Amino acid sequence: MSALSAHETALHRFRNPDPWHAPAAYWFWHRLPDEDTIRAQVRQMHDAGIRSFQVQARLSYPIGGYLDDDYLAACRTAVQTAAELGMIVGIYDDYNWQTGQAAGRAVAGHDELRERHLFWVRIPAGASDGSLSGIRSATENLGPAAMDWHYEGGVVAWADWQVEYALVVAEEQGAAVERPELVDRVDGAAAKCHVHLVEPVPDGTEAIVFVSARCATSRIVNPVDPVAVDRFIEAGYQPFADALGDFFGSTVAYMFFDQPHAVYYDWAERRGDLRSAMPFHESLAVSIRERWGGRTPQVLAAVLDGDDPERLSLRAQFYEHFSGYAMETFLGKLRTWSHAHGLRQSGHEVLGHVGGWALDTAFANWDLRVNFGLDHFGVDGYRDLTAVDAQDALVQLSPVFGDSVARHHGRSGTMVEQYFVTPPEGGTPWSGHWGLTLQELRTTAINHHLQGMRQMIFHGFYQTHGHDDDHESLRNPRFDFPPGINFEPWFADHHLRFALESARLSEFLEPVSPQSDVAVLYPLRTVWTAGQLGEQASAMGEWARALTESRVGFHLVDERDLEAAAVEEGAVCFGDRRYRALVLPAVTTLRSAASLRRLRRLAESGVRVLASGATPAVYQEGPQTAAEDWADLAPAVEMFHTVPEKAVLRGLAAQRGQTEPTLRAPAGSAVRWRGGPDAADGFRFACFTETEGTVELLLPDGPWHIEEWQAADGTVRTLEAAENPVALRLEQNALRLLRVYRGAEPASGWADATEDSEAAAGHGTPQWSAPEALESGWLLEVAKDAYEEAGTRRDIAVTCGWERQGLPAFAGTADYVRQIELDAPVRLELMLPAVAGAVAVSVNGVRVGERAWAPYRVTIPADALRVGGNELRIRVAPSAANRYYAGTGLRAEPEPCGLLAPPLVSHALATADLGASPDGFDSGPRSSSVTES
After folding, report:
1. How far is CA 523 from CA 59, 356, 364, 436, 616, in A?
2. Is the Cβ–Cβ distance between 627 and 590 less than 8 Å?
3. What is the DSSP code string of 249-288?
4. Which residue positions in the chain have pLDDT lower than 50?
5. What integer best gives the mean pLDDT of the chain?
6. Chain centroid to CA 232
7. What are residue 55's DSSP bridge partners?
8. 685 and 674 in contact (C-beta within 8 Å)?
9. From residue 242, how far is each of 172, 229, 245, 347 by CA, in Å?
10. β-bridge pairing 387-391 and 414-419
């Protein structure tokens, strides 16, 4: 393919993004939909720019109807409709969420396949019995609806208690021996267990009796039982193949798992480093015996106790073995089935860092080591399409982590499941975010794209908007992780614009190898030895946050990457990825001495090795000389107590301006960016700011050709710029996409862009009169088909929202209307300084502009105006918050709706170019006065 055809192909993809880059959605089903509803809602998604979906039967969907003939027929209608519209479909692989239960179908008639867990009872010296009680399911935190989902009858009941290991452990040295004959009997009940010994525990020792039990009421299969996983696939996957198989590999493109794990359980007497019961099965026990043989007692004791290198080494070995076994047993079987049916495998595991930067941001009460060992790089080896989840409208670790594990496996980019749970101040937890604005969603999506997101999966698109009778979390669809994006008033008229922009940004960044100069070592083995709550959890997050805020590109890397690393010109290379610096965030455990030898080689070759906090003291394998080996290496390492200041971090980035194009954000600039070489001998850069800002494009000796690709409409224009660096100004919420390549004659000038792009089109930018505030004379009109206040018309102030003017529970679309008097038609600029919602502006019945995020500035063409009176109509579509939270007590007060400050209007005085204006109207010098009426 020639360079020209490659360029044109890239432009075509940018202008017409495919479903893999456009936003997707979880489609929440609350009841069985009829055919008309299915077709209408699939069409609604398509027309709003959502080109991919996964059906999710949520808790309000009757659990007994999941995967029955009617459900599968409805799924088939949805897939057929998607096929007609050129969409793709992923199969969300379970009921509600948490892969591994198939709404109880997998364990029905197979009680032996229900989740089984390993607990332990500690019996001190001199005692001859011990108990465990007060077993608590983590599902209780989600409320009664979730308990009814996970457990038959909504209660946890244990059965089939049995002794797995009986150890006697020396209190001082931690030496352990196995003594199965010490146990007389086990009295197990539905909620507790009592262990009796044949004789008291010897002095100076402690007995640890590991007992397993099956949760007799759980609908979840045992994830470490190969037979149970096969049964889950038979009950939960195969029905989709039977109903939709002829669409597999085309419209139906992938299977998607979501947080596959057994429930996390704790109990009153639990002590030890492991903070949750462990999924268990006899096949896992066999693998443990095969791995350690006679050392098994010592390994099991080390899982619970000990902070010396020898026992920490055994603990790391155990979690490596457990996670590998669990991944192969569960994820390996899912992937094998998917590939055998022509489908790609995707999905995401539990992420302790979701919603923040630290590894312990979420799920701090669960010990996530018993869920695939927190080995996110390992989990991604079982996927074809990387996926993560992200919480709330925050810049966070998830997207860059997802992109990092994808690159580890030779891919790039990640799906990001986006949900909202944190309410505004004063709101009730788990009440969600019906107050979501499109500006907030857009900002979140762009920030994720700049961190490696390929596609946002919105959580979720609702079948219904629930009911008014109660506000029970999860059971009432209205409060099942809201918002339902399609029930936001701004969705119908404004979401498409956001969706196309997101898709084009994703397509633009797809071929980019980002200029990331720092590799941050994911401290996996330290997590295994210290848990997810240790110093490494916060240190990891602090480095990631600080590098992001310093505009220094980075990826997370796995210790296994070091094994095949090469060093070239002062950079460590993992395949085609090059990094000038490697960071160790409070890393205390490494695989072996070979890892430190590799670090020494990097430092001696000019790669900057940095470390903060605690330092290596444990090797998972081999002699325990880590502390001594680190002391020898330390002089070559840049050590910090905490993350260093911004100037040090920025010094880690390569000075590329003389060798290849790059961007540089001046000190104090709020601009964030992502970019680097593309696949066609060019360079691409995407930059964005929530406030006004400047970024500089640095170019080596030219000539260089600079194009600006407009994500809003798919157009491309040439920028003139010869000064080096080229200064790029960004207004509030501006997204600018630049492609740079050699071979053009340079020119001069700033590279400016505004919403209407008059200068870009080669026309003079108008000179505007001083703005006049339209403070009075406004009416608020509500449409006749509104759910509330239908057909009403009232005087309204524009100094505060309508929620403070007698409409605290109204959150529908409404029109602000007033008259303006003109002496002569002339182009006007309308500026809305403060708005709560998305707006559409009409003049004399003609739509002249739409804005869903600041700046809310609309140019009104002269030919839409007339001498004398003109009707100005500003339609505001706010969030749905005040509709759905009214009367629930879930919000402390109503959220703002409508215009919050008087609109400002200016008229064109003159332009530098007297030719036709870009909107096709004469833009010669005129003046006119605006009079309120």
Report:
1. 37, 17, 17, 35, 11
2. no
3. TTTEEEEEEE---PPPEE-TT--SS--S-EE--HHHHHHH
4. 1, 746-763, 912-930, 932-933
5. 93
6. 27
7. 27
8. yes
9. 60, 19, 6, 22
10. parallel
AA identity, residue 437: T
Secondary-structure percent of the chain, ordered helix, strand, coil, rounded to 5:
30, 30, 45
**Whole-angstrom Cα distance, residue 95 to residue 237?**
12
Alpha carbon distance 272, 279 (integer Å): 17
CA 617 to chain centre: 34
Alpha-carbon gap, residue 388 to 161, rounded angstroms? 36
Please give the Cα distance from 547 to 690 (Å, whole number).
19
Q: Please name the residues in contact with 328: beta carbons below 8 A apart, sequence gap of 6 or more.
A: none
Residue (of 201, 187, 182) closest to 128 by Cα position: 201
Q: Hey, what are 128's tokens?
A: 């001859």
Residue pair 462/477 in contact by the 8 Å Cβ criterion: yes
Other Cβ atoms closer than 10 A to 358? 22
Q: Which two tokens stand for residue 630?
A: 């680190």
Quote the CA–CA distance of 415 and 413 in Å, as a whole number: 7
Residue type, 90: G
- Whether the Cβ atoms of residue 879 and residue 436 lie closer than 8 Å to each other: yes
- In angstroms, the CA 688 to CA 708 distance is 14
- Ranges assigned E (strand) in 146-293: 158-170, 176-178, 183-188, 193-197, 205-215, 252-258, 265-266, 278-279
Classify the C-alpha dihedral 434-435-441-442 as positive or negative: positive
For the record, the structure tokens of 480 come out as 């099942």
Token representation of residue 373 = 């060992």
In sequence order, what are the residues at sequence separation of 6 or more whose Cβ sits closer than 8 angstroms to the Cβ of residue 647? none
State pTM to two decimals.
0.95
365-417 confidence digits (pLDDT tens): 999 999 999 999 999 999 999 999 999 999 999 999 999 999 999 999 999 99
User: What letter represents residue 241's amino acid?
Assistant: A
pLDDT digits (tens, 9 = 90+) for 796-815: 999 999 999 999 999 999 99
- 888 phi and psi angles, rounded to 5 deg: -95, -20
Rounded to 5 degrees, φ, ψ at 393 are -90, 65
Distance CA 191, CA 218 (A): 13
- Is 785 exposed, middle or buried (CB count within 10 Å of its CB: 0-12, 13-18, 19+)? exposed
Measured between alpha carbons, how far is 101 from 152 in angstroms, rounded to an integer? 12
Rounded to the nearest 10°, the torsion over CA 917, 922, 926, 928 is: -90
